[in-house]
Design brief:
- This protein is α/β, with parallel strands linked by helices.
- The chain folds into two domains: 133 residues, Alpha-Beta Complex (Aspartate Aminotransferase, domain 1), CATH 3.90.1150.10; 249 residues, Type I PLP-dependent aspartate aminotransferase-like (Major domain) (Aspartate Aminotransferase, domain 2), CATH 3.40.640.10.
- Helices cover 40% and strands 16% of the residues.
- A hairpin with a 7-residue loop joins strand 11 and strand 12.
- Helix 3 runs antiparallel to helix 10.
- The longest helix is centred in the first third of the chain and has 21 residues.
- It is globular.
- It starts with a helix and ends with a helix.
- The structure holds pyridoxal-5'-phosphate (PLP).
- Pyridoxal-5'-phosphate (PLP) binds next to helix 5.
- The site of pyridoxal-5'-phosphate has 13 residues, from helix 5.
Length: 394
């Protein structure tokens, strides 16, 4: 069983601040181990990677590549299948602008769900504008469950592992099986899922998977793209610049081997090392314990929110967050008032406008959880929501 007090003590921001942080789906707080790793890199080891022959450069390179190894082990991939990017958004754009452009043509169909974050929508819309692919939307029922059709004639399925609004988790294994049976590739947006559930890409058999470091208790500015070896090898490079090349002549260039081929310029070195520390830190706890704790948080949130008059929970939340609307209350007014009293919730469309349109609401309020949250955090938030409604005279 997790000792949440012991976990909380490792997050300086939770001790130095009265805040009740229920916005981890936007960005998670960082444990001391991550802060130390980033600080240590800059104070003791700072140098660029893959360039210098001096001791600092060699140490930085080893640490950066060890971070890649740690990420690979964490999600069941091989080391060369891990590309460091700027974030989940960067990873998905990389796939759209390289694999997408090279493998899709006018009239080809890709499928994506209405649950998707804009990061897994707009890059595909940009590709549609550019080369004329067709976007086929997978709808949901009232619970937020995907209404899966077959994937006949679909070339790529882009799917979230966990909705950042509804907290629902599509059956990825089934989707991958169905997609592969139809000859389609699958890209999983694991931005939310990666922090709540063990991912094993080898077992899942997805073709691409993307996530960000900062939602996984790691630093901002680093993300991960997993791609199957043969796909990465056959994709054109993304950005051009230093380190992604084999040779450059006045006439042209050849590309480096994977994953360097996709890491042009100086990569997010300190951030990757911080992400390594985050993975090591999280790996001290068992997924079973984490999930048990987070399930209790979800259950508490659902039960206590239900006691608020006129409140409707969106979908059937399973993991990570609960979003809701309250009759006559604008989410921005609500979150501003509770925010003044130290409760951090998020209001808006959460970068998922098509989902809100599908649900028939303009905006919602989201309460999202990290490993450090307690039932008391949720109860205090619900108390503050009720108090805010008094102020708003609801
Ligand atoms: C499901 C999902 N996908 C993608 C992203 C984009 O992540 P980032 O902004 O770190 O690139 C987010 C961020 O909230 C998300 O929740």
């Amino acid at each position: 069983m997790l000792s949440i007090n012991e976990i909380r003590r490792q997050f300086p921001i939770l001790g130095s601040n009265e805040v009740i942080y229920l916005d981890s789906a936007a960005s998670a707080q960082k444990p001391q181990a991550v802060l130390d790793a980033v600080h240590r890199f800059y104070t003791e080891d700072n140098a660029n990677v893959h360039r210098g022959m001096h001791a600092l450069a060699e140490k930085a390179t080893v640490d950066y590549e060890n971070a890649r190894r740690a990420v690979a082990t964490f999600i069941g991939a091989a080391k060369h299948e891990i590309v460091f990017t700027s974030g989940c958004t960067g990873s998905i754009n990389l796939v759209a602008k390289t694999w997408g452009k090279a493998n899709l043509k006018k009239g080809d169909t890709i499928a994506l769900s209405v649950l998707e974050h804009h990061s897994n929508i707009v890059p595909w819309q940009q590709l549609a504008e550019e080369i004329g692919i067709i976007l086929k939307w997978i709808d949901i029922d009232e619970d937020g469950t995907l209404l899966l059709d077959d994937f006949a004639n679909v070339k790529l399925v882009c799917i979230t592992g966990c909705s950042n609004v509804l907290g629902t988790t599509p059956d990825l294994k089934l989707i991958v099986e169905k997609a592969h049976a139809a000859g389609a590739k699958v890209l999983v947006d694991a931005a939310q899922l990666v922090v709540h559930e063990r991912i094993d890409v080898a077992n899942l058999d997805c073709d691409f998977l993307a996530f960000s470091g900062h939602k996984l208790y790691g630093p901002t500015g680093v993300g991960v793209l997993y791609g199957k070896r043969e796909l990465l090898e056959n994709m054109p490079a993304f950005m051009g610049g230093g380190m992604m090349i084999g040779h450059v002549t006045k006439e042209g260039f050849t590309t480096a081997e994977i994953p360097s081929k996709f890491e042009a310029g100086t990569p997010p070195i300190a951030q990757a090392i911080g992400l390594h520390a985050a993975i090591d830190w999280l790996s001290k706890y068992s997924w079973e314990d984490i999930q048990k704790h987070e399930q209790q948080l979800i259950n508490t949130a659902i039960e206590s929110l239900k006691s608020i008059k006129g409140l409707r929970i969106l979908g059937l939340p399973q993991t990570g967050c609960v979003s809701f609307v309250i009759d006559g209350v604008h989410p921005h007014d609500l979150t501003e008032i509770v925010g003044r009293n130290g409760v951090s919730l998020r209001a808006g469309h959460h970068c998922a406008e098509p989902l809100h349109e599908r649900l028939g609401v303009n905006a919602s309020t989201r309460m999202s959880f990290g490993i450090y949250n307690t039932k008391e955090d949720i109860q205090k938030a619900v108390q503050e929501i009720k108090a805010a409604m008094q102020i708003l005279k609801i």
